[in-house]
Amino acid sequence: MTAFASVAAMSVAGTAAGMPVMIQTALPVSAAASDTNDDWLHAKGSRLYDKNGNEVWLTGANWFGFNCTECSPHYLWSGDIDDMVKDIADHGVNVLRLPVSTELLYNWMIGNPDPISSVNPNDDPNYPINVDLIINGEVANSQQTFEVLLAKCKKYGVKCFIDIHSPESNNSGHNYGLWYGKSFKGRDGKTVNVTTDVWIETLAWCADHYKGDDTLIGFDLKNEPHSTYGGAPVDAIWDNSNAPNNWRKAAEDCANAILDKNPNALILIEGVEGFEGHNAWWGGNLRGVAKYPILPTSGTSQIVYSPHDYGPVVSDQPWFHKDFTEQTLLDDYWYDTWAYLVDKDMYPLLIGEWGGRLDGGDNEKWLGLLRDYMIKHHINHTFWCLNDDSGDTGGLWKDIQFGVSRSDDGTMKGKTTINWDTEKYETYYYPAIWKTQTSKKFIGLDHKVALGKDGISLDDFYANYAAKEGSNLDGGTIVDPKTPVTYENPTVTYTPGNGSVKLSWKAVTDAEGYAVYTQSASGSWTKLADCSGTSYTMTGLTAGTKYKVAVIGKFGGSWNLDYSKAITVTPNNSSTTPTYPTNIKAEYNETYHQVRLTWDKVSGADKYGIAVYLSGKWRIQTSALTTNSFTTPKNLTPGKSYKVAVAARVNGKWDTANAIKNAITITVK
Known about the structure:
CATH class of the largest domain: Alpha Beta
């Protein structure tokens, strides 16, 4: 949830100590065997596209609870998780925004997830409820519950992204405006100070852990960065400084860490509250993007900006103090605060929270105007919220009931009944759900799995509906779908060097770039580098050690994370490949009294250096040679002898010890 407050004076606060490195054995991830992990999305301009270059529209809702002390989605205490996700899909929700906390992710990362006590699953055949949440005879912990939820979403064609709602698990944690500065006691017994580093590390871990499951398509980095209201020591700001409370800098650093683990994840970035004297809803002010955009090192193809917007029931604002219209809202607030990003085709928007209670007046007027603006301008959105226990907004659900009945075969079957707020759903939410224009079929984001019982998959829409009836996207459009294309990553060869290997491959048609990945002992893949060319040299390797590497391509804005063409490489053993020059020869010029030195090239060397032994010390003459020769200055003293060492720099290191051992003596002629 959100609130509005004036921007207080800004000051700089330091962060607490960093967190030690944690290691965890990977837990199973909910990915169906038939899933091809190809539903990742990317941005071009202000639109989002799938792997084939077809537009998509994220029209979802929030389901909170993982961020709270219950550590699980609310109302699982009243209904069955399978029934509830199915009903969500049947109502056309194609993506869920799932609030979590840094504390929750930390405990998952260290391999000690929080237990959940608010849910009471039962596998008694006379009253079966949430049987999926009983694992090995025990009630599922918070991470297992999350993974069951992902599996159910995959089953019914729903995608998800998480949002860091607060540093610690706290039912009112949204009031705190920063991503750092709180502490909690971890499940390992340690007091954890949430620093920016801890926040980034837990999100990067999560991105790495779930990168094999395209049900989890993205990460909303922080819910509603805002001012000191709610207890934060300083305001969240947006500028080009290195201040610890600079949200733009922190978000960019976090985006880089996540994209290093999963380059296909969407990064959702909210605004701040105040920028250069202009105030907004918490997390709603994106004026700063025009001046200081977030620019990950891999580019902006995964960046989605995500403001929040509310009506006067949540908090009265000056732009509601008139007979407001879409145009007045644009003039007074929307356009300069966030709408310009889409109008100027700069970046996609996803309104991460919008919603509210029905008042028969201005709040409903605002709901209708925002709904229509999002439809007309292809603005993605997630309604706040499904739960009805959001104090100042209510939810799309009114109540949830569970009961059992005897089936024809005599067994007892459970059933969850969700009572939706019909007026709110049908009047304000349903019109803004992505669906076909005539047949009104809900459109999912999974290429193969249909969204709920009456919905369709993304492939089905573009194969059978897009060119005939289209959808309600942009107010109603008929489009020609892009033909699905299968891309293959390059075949890689390598040349071993001393503590290094040079990877080479042929250019692949339509590849927009390449990335080199290496596999760890645990089997996970980590990106080493992005490449625009067709070769890359891995350095700093241990001689004689085997490394598994893969080169993947970027096609249509998405990385083809297929490692099936990985190869094993082995750098040369240092015992057979020297790291210092050998076969050093001296040629004398008696006319000019100078000496020219030559030597054999050293494999992997990028620089050579010359040192002379003078007055009991080795004196470096040069360390910038790029060829295997050196000529002394003219007019040296004839008959004078010098001890000379030639060293090479390999993988960033100088082997001076062996260079000195193999020094030669020259006498000027």
